[in-house]
Protein backbone atom coordinates (compact mmCIF):
# COMPACT_ATOMS: atom_id res chain seq x y z
CA UNK A 1 0.00 0.00 0.00
CA UNK A 2 1.26 3.47 -0.88
CA UNK A 3 0.95 6.42 1.47
CA UNK A 4 1.09 10.19 1.27
CA UNK A 5 1.51 12.84 3.89
CA UNK A 6 -0.94 15.73 3.76
CA UNK A 7 0.19 18.95 5.43
CA UNK A 8 -2.34 21.69 6.15
CA UNK A 9 -1.39 25.05 7.63
CA UNK A 10 -4.42 26.85 8.98
CA UNK A 11 -5.15 29.85 11.17
CA UNK A 12 -5.46 28.64 14.76
CA UNK A 13 -9.16 29.56 14.87
CA UNK A 14 -9.86 27.10 12.01
CA UNK A 15 -7.97 24.20 13.59
CA UNK A 16 -11.02 22.28 14.84
CA UNK A 17 -12.89 22.81 11.56
CA UNK A 18 -9.84 21.53 9.64
CA UNK A 19 -9.65 18.44 11.86
CA UNK A 20 -13.33 17.68 11.30
CA UNK A 21 -13.05 18.21 7.54
CA UNK A 22 -9.98 15.96 7.34
CA UNK A 23 -11.69 13.21 9.33
CA UNK A 24 -14.77 13.38 7.10
CA UNK A 25 -12.53 13.11 4.03
CA UNK A 26 -10.85 9.96 5.36
CA UNK A 27 -7.87 11.00 7.48
CA UNK A 28 -7.70 8.78 10.56
CA UNK A 29 -4.89 10.26 12.65
CA UNK A 30 -3.66 13.83 12.73
CA UNK A 31 -0.58 15.30 14.39
CA UNK A 32 -0.93 18.95 15.39
CA UNK A 33 1.89 21.47 15.63
CA UNK A 34 1.83 25.16 16.54
CA UNK A 35 3.44 27.58 14.16
CA UNK A 36 3.99 31.17 13.10
CA UNK A 37 4.30 32.33 9.54
CA UNK A 38 5.93 35.10 7.61
CA UNK A 39 3.86 35.90 4.54
CA UNK A 40 4.50 38.07 1.52
CA UNK A 41 2.16 40.76 2.82
CA UNK A 42 3.15 43.15 5.59
CA UNK A 43 1.59 42.21 8.91
CA UNK A 44 -0.51 44.63 10.92
CA UNK A 45 1.24 46.62 13.60
CA UNK A 46 -0.08 47.80 16.92
CA UNK A 47 1.98 50.41 18.81
CA UNK A 48 5.02 49.47 16.74
CA UNK A 49 4.70 45.74 17.43
CA UNK A 50 4.02 43.41 14.52
CA UNK A 51 1.04 41.11 14.93
CA UNK A 52 1.48 37.60 13.56
CA UNK A 53 -1.45 35.27 14.11
CA UNK A 54 -0.84 31.78 15.42
CA UNK A 55 -1.15 28.93 12.98
CA UNK A 56 -1.84 25.25 13.32
CA UNK A 57 0.02 22.70 11.24
CA UNK A 58 -1.83 19.43 10.66
CA UNK A 59 0.18 16.40 9.56
CA UNK A 60 -1.81 13.45 8.22
CA UNK A 61 -0.49 10.15 6.89
CA UNK A 62 -3.13 8.75 4.56
CA UNK A 63 -3.46 6.12 1.86
CA UNK A 64 -2.38 7.67 -1.43
CA UNK A 65 -5.96 7.45 -2.75
CA UNK A 66 -7.21 9.58 0.17
CA UNK A 67 -4.72 12.43 -0.30
CA UNK A 68 -6.80 14.20 -2.95
CA UNK A 69 -10.12 14.03 -1.02
CA UNK A 70 -8.38 15.39 2.09
CA UNK A 71 -6.77 18.19 0.05
CA UNK A 72 -10.14 19.03 -1.48
CA UNK A 73 -11.66 19.25 2.01
CA UNK A 74 -8.86 21.60 3.10
CA UNK A 75 -9.35 23.70 -0.05
CA UNK A 76 -13.08 24.03 0.64
CA UNK A 77 -12.31 25.20 4.18
CA UNK A 78 -9.36 27.48 3.47
CA UNK A 79 -10.23 29.17 0.17
CA UNK A 80 -13.26 31.47 0.03
CA UNK A 81 -13.98 33.91 -2.79
CA UNK A 82 -10.45 33.50 -4.15
CA UNK A 83 -8.91 34.50 -0.80
CA UNK A 84 -6.82 31.84 0.92
CA UNK A 85 -6.57 31.61 4.69
CA UNK A 86 -4.12 28.73 4.70
CA UNK A 87 -2.14 26.22 2.73
CA UNK A 88 -2.37 22.48 2.14
CA UNK A 89 -0.22 20.10 0.12
CA UNK A 90 0.68 16.43 -0.09
CA UNK A 91 3.90 14.54 -0.60
CA UNK A 92 4.48 10.87 -1.36
CA UNK A 93 5.97 8.77 1.41
CA UNK A 94 8.77 6.51 0.27
CA UNK A 95 9.21 4.50 3.48
CA UNK A 96 7.00 4.24 6.55
CA UNK A 97 7.28 2.51 9.90
CA UNK A 98 5.45 2.67 13.21
CA UNK A 99 1.94 3.12 11.84
CA UNK A 100 -0.80 1.80 14.10
CA UNK A 101 -2.22 -1.43 12.66
CA UNK A 102 -5.78 -0.27 13.33
CA UNK A 103 -5.11 2.76 11.12
CA UNK A 104 -3.80 0.45 8.41
CA UNK A 105 -7.04 -1.54 8.63
CA UNK A 106 -9.06 1.69 8.36
CA UNK A 107 -7.07 2.67 5.26
CA UNK A 108 -7.73 -0.73 3.67
CA UNK A 109 -11.47 -0.56 4.49
CA UNK A 110 -11.75 2.91 2.96
CA UNK A 111 -9.94 1.72 -0.17
CA UNK A 112 -12.41 -1.15 -0.54
CA UNK A 113 -15.34 1.24 0.04
CA UNK A 114 -13.97 3.70 -2.51
CA UNK A 115 -13.43 0.93 -5.03
CA UNK A 116 -17.01 -0.34 -4.51
CA UNK A 117 -18.53 3.14 -4.95
CA UNK A 118 -16.43 3.85 -8.05
CA UNK A 119 -17.41 0.58 -9.73
Automatic annotation (TrEMBL):
SUPFAM superfamilies to which the protein is assigned, alphabetical: GlnB-like (SSF54913)
Q: Which one of the record's GO molecular function terms can you name?
A: enzyme regulator activity
> Example GO biological process term?
regulation of nitrogen utilization
Q: Which residues cross the membrane?
A: none
Task: Show the InterPro entries listed in the entry.
Answer: N-reg_PII, N-reg_PII-like_a/b, N-reg_PII/ATP_PRibTrfase_C
Put simply, this protein is called Transcriptional regulator
Q: Which organism is it from?
A: Rheinheimera lutimaris
